[in-house]
Amino acid sequence: MRTPARRLRRRLALTAAVSSAAFVSIPAAVASAGIIAPESGGGTPNAEGIRSLYLLIGILAVIVFVGVCGLLIHTLVKYRASKGGVPSQVHGNNRLEVSWTVGAALILVLISVVTFVKLGQIYEPPNSDASALPLTSKLTPAADGRQKLPPNGRVYQIDVNGLQYVWRYTYPDGDTNNLNNVFSYEEMVVPTGATVALRIFAQDVQHSWWIPQLGGKFDAVPGYANYTWFKISEPGVYRGQCAELCGRNHANMVAQVRALPPAKFQAWYDRQKAAIRNADEQAAKARNAAIKATAGP
Questions:
Q1: In whole angstroms, how large is the CA radius of gyration of the chain?
Q2: Is 268 exposed, middle or buried (0-12, 13-18, 19+ CB in 10 A)?
Q3: Number of other CB atoms surrounding residue 285 within 10 Å
Q4: Secondary structure element (H or E) that encloses residue 179, with its range
Q5: Phi and psi of 90, rounded to 5°?
Q6: Residue 216 phi, psi dihedral angles, 5° rounding
């Protein structure tokens, strides 16, 4: 026959196990791209800042969680009474109560200070590297001030347009009518060392641009622009997807960013521009031929 003390220990062990599992699952459910914390690895300062801040708060939360649960279990086991016993009146410990109140306040102050320090790294873009400066241009920021620029105001701008069900990336080249601009689908190609500024919007329904290793999610909304930035230090490929349920083929709306050294990026840009021009010329010839064929002799 199980004694009350034995049943109490089993219940406490089960409660601790369930609570620990729930705590560990929270970051995974929120981040969705990492088991414990948001992914990084692209070298972009904003993603690194988000990850380090997340880990700091997570570690402090684990320490507080383990401390409180440990103290609770210790108290329940050490000061348990037998069935039918009469509890004694216990008065508070002023020193202990003041200590944990001050301790909690200091933890909140630490989190606040670190958060405000990290916010600059997350929101304020740095200047591009010298090797990428020839590719950047001065950009007129949005009138509402939401578009962040580095201290020298030079960025490489790319427009991100969400459509059902593909991402289109346009590289503005001074053509306000977008007739001669280079563009690509699904894969965005960027130069390493350049501060890349993104203007994000949607063509039809709401989407969400998300490359986990390059920062947080940003909604793509028809008729409204969101802005973000990243700066990749090393060549690589970074994968993501639309993170907003946008229709039946939402799962197929993948995204990818490929970072190339500036010289290789320029070569890709020139090839892409030539391919688009050639495709336009071929389409024009085919259209003219179709018009002549339908017009007759």
A1: 28
A2: middle
A3: 10
A4: none
A5: -120, 130
A6: -85, 180
Nearest CA among 240, 262, 232 for reference residue 44: 232
| 189 plus 263 within the same structural domain | yes
Q: Which domain holds residue 254?
A: 130-293
Q: Assess whether pLDDT exceeds 90 at residue 208.
A: yes
Task: Say if 173 falls within a structural domain.
Answer: yes
* Alpha-carbon distances, residue 109 vs 51, 56, 57, 135, 238 (angstroms): 20, 13, 12, 42, 35
Q: Are 158 and 190 in contact (CB under 8 A)?
A: yes
Number of structural domains in the chain: 2
For the chain, give percent helix, strand, coil, nearest 5.
Answer: 45, 20, 30
Helix, strand or coil, per DSSP, at residue 231: coil
CA 207 and chain centroid, separation: 14
Q: Lowest-pLDDT range, 27-41, 128-142, 178-192, 213-227?
A: 27-41
Q: 85-99: per-residue pLDDT in tens?
A: 666 777 777 888 898
